[in-house]
Write a structure and sequence with these properties.
By secondary structure, this protein is an alpha/beta fold. The chain has 7 helices and 15 strands. The chain has 2 domains: 129 residues, 3-Layer(aba) Sandwich (Rossmann fold); 102 residues, LytTr DNA-binding domain (OB fold (Dihydrolipoamide Acetyltransferase, E2P), Beta Barrel).
């Protein structure tokens, strides 16, 4: 059973061919038809402004051919070619088409092609999930005093921004590690589930917050005020992790 839905468009300058594919799409539960386009130019404009997983794409069309369009698509959009000309098959696979349907084709052939597409997107979703898990960082390296220092993120209490520098306060250390970088660039590298910016000058380790009192956070005897800019996101985190009132 399909676990995902694929958004798709039909691109064909022949109304009868378009209507046939539309009928097949509507019979297929995991396909969601977003638009029918009578030209590749119209389709290109649509995919540049909307997310489209799959295009059923004719090849021979005026102004811009389906083959030319396939080379302009976003990398996450995939193609099943639908054409009356078999001489384009090899070229179709060179542009990474998922399948190539030769007109006239029946629903069984159509279903075989879209099942390949479904398998592709299901597997890509699994790969993306595994990549996210793999990319969960346990440590970072920062340059400090001409050395690359390994920082275990589990030992970080908070990061403090100071002009062009960041102070990294760690458990068990009386003095911070000082590194030349901006707090903004550091924030982009940190796991969002573990760290939250609460002030123009502070990113805190959520697991190491001791007390929250109104608009202040207590970490290791330091009081950090949550500024208005970051308060909504911080309050959302507190509400999600609070028991009772």
């Amino acid at each position: 059973m399909a676990t995902i839905s694929l958004s798709c468009i039909i691109v064909d300058d022949e109304p009868m061919a378009m209507n046939l594919v539309e009928g097949y799409v509507k019979k297929t539960p995991f396909l969601e038809l977003k638009k029918k386009c009578s030209s590749a130019v119209e389709a290109l404009d649509y995919v540049n402004h909307h997310k489209v997983d799959l295009l059923f794409l004719d090849i021979q069309m005026p102004d811009l051919t389906g083959m030319e369009l396939s080379r302009m698509l976003p990398k996450n959009s995939k193609v099943i070619f639908t054409t009356a000309f078999d001489e384009y098959a090899l070229e179709g696979f060179k542009v990474s088409a998922l399948d190539y349907l030769l007109k006239p084709f029946d629903y069984a052939e159509f279903l075989s092609a879209v099942n390949k597409a479904l398998d592709y997107f299901v597997n890509r979703k699994k790969d993306d999930s595994q990549l996210i898990e793999t990319n969960e960082k346990e440590f970072i390296f920062v340059k400090s005093e001409y050395k690359q220092v390994k920082i275990k993120l589990s030992e970080v209490l908070y990061f403090e921004g100071l002009k062009d520098y960041v102070k990294i306060w760690l458990k068990g250390l009386e003095r911070p590690i000082l590194t030349l970088m901006s707090l903004k660039s550091l924030q982009e590298e940190l796991p969002k589930k573990d760290f939250l910016r609460v002030h123009r000058s502070y990113i805190v380790a959520l697991n190491n917050i001791d007390v929250v009192e109104r608009s202040q956070i207590l970490i290791n005897d330091l009081r950090i005020t949550v500024s208005e800019q970051y308060k909504p996101q911080f309050l959302e985190y507190i509400q999600k992790n609070s028991l009772g009132r």
